[in-house]
Amino acid sequence: MANTQQAGFINQDALVGVFFALLAAVGFSSKAILVKLAYLDHVDAVTLLALRMAFSVPFFIGVALWARRRHAEPLSGQDRALVVILGLIGYYLSSLLDFLGLQTLSAGLERLILFLYPTMTVILSALLTRRAIGRTVLAAMAVCYAGIALVFFRDVGTLQGGIIVGAALVFVSTLSYSVYLVGAGHAIARIGTSRFTAYAMIVATTASVLQFGLTHSIEALHVTARVYELALAMAVFSTLLPVFLLSHAIRRIGSGHASLIGSIGPVSTIFMAYVFLQERLSISQVAGSALVLAGVVIVGMHSRRGGA
After folding, report:
1. Per-domain boundaries in the chain
2. pLDDT tens digits for 260-303?
3. How far apart are CA 84 and CA 77, in angstroms?
4. Cβ–Cβ under 8 Å, residues 195 and 22
5. What is the distance between the alpha carbons of residues 113 and 105, in angstroms, rounded to a whole number?
């Protein structure tokens, strides 16, 4: 009887973890939709990014203060430099390039390109460790990029000019985030997840606000109330809540299962883009998305088994 109750509790806990992972994936995926909606009110990428960061940073300042009390030892000079560099690369530069790319790119294609980050981390890790990438992973990566090409060439015929520039910006954004992930592993092990993330986000926010101050006048903040609402929604529903939900999901079902569930992200973005942005849904887009998802899942599963 006790074993049955324990099994039921474990199953229930796992279901909660799956639900949290799904909500986190949808939350992260909604960012592109909110950005595209804000662009309808003629706000520029730098202003929108500064607003999103400004709305979310009070939370991360609170986390930083809380983490500082838990970790009495101060950061070394090397760790501080690492936080600044990775914060600029992983959160500031990656977000800025992504926001710029979304000015000319469809939300669905943007999310698919961003979803290539596991393949890029595999390549970067292989270069750093000088290990060869296995044939299975190479084949899966080829499938991923074939899927991107399928959706890209479909969008070339349906979108206005700038898609090549937009795709390049989002691709570099994905690459910068992959560099951050590769470099963050050792830093997080020494500094701690909460403290490192909070400090890196504060660095990114400082850079975003500083860029806005140097390139824009205060009149640039005279945007519609709808833009402020969308920026706040980005901070809450596409930044803060997904971070919490994902951490709770990983605690219940593990990072491997949580990352696989996160594969629903591009699908949810394409669906939301169809509903809220009236982006057309074609057979080639569905097929390309399926190829990208399949390739990423294979890369993820093979990486967890220890394959290069």
Report:
1. 2-304
2. 677 788 888 888 998 999 888 788 888 888 888 888 888 777 66
3. 11
4. no
5. 11
